[in-house]
Design brief:
Layout lengths: L3 E7 L5 H8 L5 E3 L5 H11 L12 H16 L7 E5 L7 H7 L5 E5 L2 H14 L16 H9 L4 H14 L6 E5 H6 L1 H12 L16 H6 L23 H7 L16 E2 L1
Parallel strand pairs: 1-3, 1-4, 2-3, 4-5, 5-6
Helix pairs in contact: 2-3, 5-11
Protein name: Sulfotransferase
Pfam families: Sulfotransfer_3
Organism: Dyella flagellata
Length: 271
């Protein structure tokens, strides 16, 4: 690619859409909600593997050119920005490949206390009482306990992303990784954005934290979850009481491993 590319990943309901909405204010940047590129990347990687009967004709150099070309072909002609941010929770599982394909790329992983992530998802479900959500395969039954269990398991919306984050954080390819905490982004967005710009090596830009806009109602409605990617016009922390039963909340309240300095021997930047 002739343009710079970076990646937004991390946990759901942790500020990735807000971060993208803010970055979009910079006319040099393109950012949005999760794109289909990561899915295409995974599919293409599989088709280039040994399960392809013609794989004998495919070497690693060709694989890299094809996968690198995927990004160029997806964005070229559609996006004029000089710097592109592609978003997917899958990118935390692809750090070795991304570091090889795009050595100058940075991966920003958005994180949040998992108890509050579960609370946020539960609020969405209850707020859309007449629309079954794709988060739970449009099933209409269940309780807060089964929903929490469903999103927390290894294939669930939260569990998969959490395991992917741990894979990235504790792996060897952390030089291009930064964790951005939700609490920092909403309580001190100027500090958060300054850290992002410093991390990606771009000149500072004055952002408007009082008038933030992002709209993808069509996607959210199709997913049966209106408000899934809603961003408030004004950036700020909202104090509220959890709607989760106390035992469900307690189950997740000690999951924020990134807050323990002893678990960060490689010095991953945490903002």
């Amino acid at each position: 690619m002739q343009r710079r590319i970076h990646f937004i990943s991390g946990l759901p309901r942790s500020g990735s859409t807000l971060l993208s909405a803010l970055l979009q204010q910079n006319p040099r940047f393109h950012a949005g909600m999760s794109s289909p590129v990561a899915g295409m990347f995974s599919t293409m990687l599989g088709e280039l593997s040994e399960r392809n009967e013609f794989s004998v004709f495919i070497n690693d150099a060709q694989r890299q050119r094809v996968l690198r070309g995927l990004f160029a072909n997806y964005y070229d002609g559609e996006v004029d920005a000089e710097v592109i941010f592609d978003t997917s929770r899958t990118w935390c599982t692809r750090l070795p490949a991304l570091n090889t394909l795009f050595p100058d790329a940075r991966i920003i992983a958005c994180v949040r206390d998992t108890a509050w992530i579960v609370d946020s998802i539960e609020r969405l479900i209850r707020g859309n009482a007449f629309q079954p959500s794709s988060i739970f395969n449009f099933q209409t039954g269940g309780t807060v306990y089964s929903r929490a269990e469903g999103i927390a398991n290894g294939d669930g919306m939260l569990g998969y992303a959490y395991n992917a984050l741990r894979e990235a954080f504790f792996g060897e390819d952390t030089s291009n990784l930064m964790l951005l905490q939700y609490d920092t982004l909403v309580s001190n967005p100027a500090r958060a954005l300054a850290a992002v710009y410093d991390f990606i090596g771009e000149p500072a830009f004055i952002h408007d934290f009082e008038h933030v806009s992002f709209d993808d109602k069509g996607f959210d409605e199709r997913a049966g979850t209106p408000g899934l990617h809603r961003v408030h016009a004004r950036v700020g922390a909202i104090q509220r009481q959890s709607i989760l039963p106390p035992d469900v909340f307690r189950r997740f309240e000690n999951d924020s491993f990134w807050r323990d300095p002893q678990l960060n021997p490689r010095g991953v930047r945490i903002v």
